Amino acid sequence: MSKSRNNKAVAEVIGGILLLFIAAALIGIVYISLMSQQAPIEEPATTLIGKMETGNIVIEHRRGEPLGLDTEIFLRIAGQALTPEVITAGDYLDSESKADGEWNIGERVVYPSADIMDIHDLEVNVKIVDIETNSMLLWGVLQEGYVIPSGGRGGIWHFDEGEGSTTYDSSGNNNNGNVHGANWTSGINGSALSYNGLDDYVVVPDSPGLHITDAITVEVWMNPVAELILDNLTLDENFCYNPHILHVADDVFVIVYVGNTDDGILKTFTIAPNGTMSDTPIDKLIFDAARVLEPRIIHVSGDIYAIVYEDPAKDDGILKTIEIFSDGQINNTIKDSLTWDTKTIVETDIAPSMIFLSILIFMILSFSLISSW
Questions:
Q1: Which residues of the chain have pLDDT under 50?
Q2: What's this model's pTM, rounded to 2 decimal places?
Q3: To which H or E segment does residue 268 belong?
Q4: Which of 23, 97, 129, 189 is the one with CA 20 to 30 A from 7?
Q5: Distance CA 122, CA 76 (A)
Q6: CATH at 111
Q7: Which residues of 174-204 are buried (b: 16+ CB within 10 A; e: fewer)?
Q8: Full residue range of the structural domain in which residue 202 is found
Q9: What digits encode the pLDDT tens for the residues 126-152?
Q10: Both 359 and 245 in a single domain?
Q11: Which of 116, 143, 170 is the last residue of a domain?
Q12: What is the C-alpha to C-alpha distance for residues 316 and 306, in angstroms, rounded to an integer?
């Protein structure tokens, strides 16, 4: 009995000694671990000020410790990262400022965004990181403005309003349109706008959300009306060949064409802004009672107009000047006439035509056939 009790006491003593050794070892390990950790690096006590100057982004070192030239600057314009995404202070400090290898008090980093893009109405966000301490020195919005939504620039107009003079952009760009003249009607899905094809339109004011520089996609659902002809006028009940139209003044136009007997005919008429035309011509002039081919007319100056055409009977090129007044009346007297080509005019699909070069100079284009006989 005594021997068993002695053995138990010895075991307890040995167990206690082992626990002491284990505890001492753990304390040593923790002590060594704590002593071996590197002391934290203090963040630099530096004040940086960010601002916008004439479209440029300026970061100024106002006070505190100098910073390294490798200090990183992250800029986001309109919510988009720049390319490259990270710049350094050394990239945009002037040569004198970075000569000592540091970014010091009073020195300014100037990012010339005005030379790259117009950012006056875009949001500008900045973040500056000290590389040595991996600490944030400055972050925030330098300029409030437009932020490109996830769908990108552009607009989506569903015309679902059904009433009013505004159609709203659902793309997130806030490019709302102002309705002018168009009427609300039922559409393929909800409401739609009906246009008269003349002077109805929707205008969207200019905005950063429309400043698209890359390829774009335009998609529209339209329902063309069955009748697209607004008005019609029978110019000549007998024959009308090679017609050529020219604007005179306001709603007055002139047409030159070849008539039933190959004569050259000139007629004036009106076309209103809504597309309606006068029922009958304003005036008429037969400028050549013989044979005429491919007549063309051009404005010279004031009330003076020139007609150029081919005389197929003689293969000559003819030029005549006439007088047409702003109200559509035509002077019945030919002002002047000139045979400008006595060689053979080649009959092609290209009519002789005139090009205005200067106040007193015109050029006539045609094809001539010169015989070698």
A1: 2-3, 5, 27, 29-36, 344-351, 357-360, 362-373
A2: 0.50
A3: strand 264-270
A4: 23
A5: 10
A6: 2.60.40
A7: ebbbebeebebeebeeeebbeeeeeeeebeb
A8: 149-228
A9: 999 999 999 999 999 999 999 988 888
A10: yes
A11: 143
A12: 16
